[in-house]
Amino acid sequence: MSSITSLKGIILVADDNESVRESLTELLRLNCYRVIAAENGEQAFKQACSQPVDLVLLDIMMPGPTGLSVCRAIKARPETRFLPIVLITGLACAEDRIRGIEAGADDFLHKPVKKEELLARVRSLVRLKRYTDELESAETVLCTLARSIEAKDPYTEGHCDRLSRYTVSLAEKIGLSREDRNDLRRSAIVHDIGKVAVPEFVLLKPGPLDATERKIMEEHTIVGERICAPLKSFRNVLPIIRSHHEKQDGSGYPDHLQGEKIPLTARILQTVDIYDSLTTARPYRDALSQERALEIMWEETHRCWWDANLVAALEDMVAESPLAFSELSA
User: 184 Cβ partners below 8 Å, 6+ apart?
Assistant: First the structure.
């Protein structure tokens, strides 16, 4: 290997059998992979969590934490949940394979491991990890841009983080899937990213907007959708960004959608967005109490603006955990 630039990836090999571990290490190094070796499950978990790794080759039967336990623990951490894991086993039982899938394994190899099969699986999964890293980098850039827009206005500080917590809690309350909750968490951060195209004299205006200024402001949902559209992982986030200012009676924007035609996830974000806006200070008024904010939301719900079921669910949650729905908890 002539230089560090020729490295194809970093592989963590975990096996309590020294001869197996060394043979895998030698094979991978000869094929231009850097190898980190671990002789038990505890070491494997620490190594996977403490340094950059592109792939884990994990023996199932090890002393201490088994490969299944380590796989489950790695996949449970947000920082490492996309790290590809191949379980290596001498077991051929279908039940063991099912347990591995349930633990989050991405692939399996059976002992004795065939050289060609190992290298093919490693190449494929390391390539997948590269795509995932690029995707996460793009998402990070978008989130950073969204937070920079939020930082322009001292009155909206912490707004995105609160919305992220509130939307996930409300979605969980009404029984939405984990995937929907993840989409809402993302959308809470980037929902106003289109405001990058709104001039500051409009964005930071302390009083009411005139007709021209309002038209400029209303374009931010379309611009935000356009900015996020290239990311395929955001395909379910786009309708939330576009539609979170629609109203039940069709008087919202940009598409004047009515009732059930407004995506449920957009209605969830909309509900907590209104609540957070009312309970935080603005240039033209002080923050309202939780009780008064909910009163106003119910008044507007009776005018057919908001989803009554979601307002009721939010009210229940505020009553159960008032501090969790307070700016002070941010």
Answer: 167, 168, 171, 176, 240, 265, 268, 269
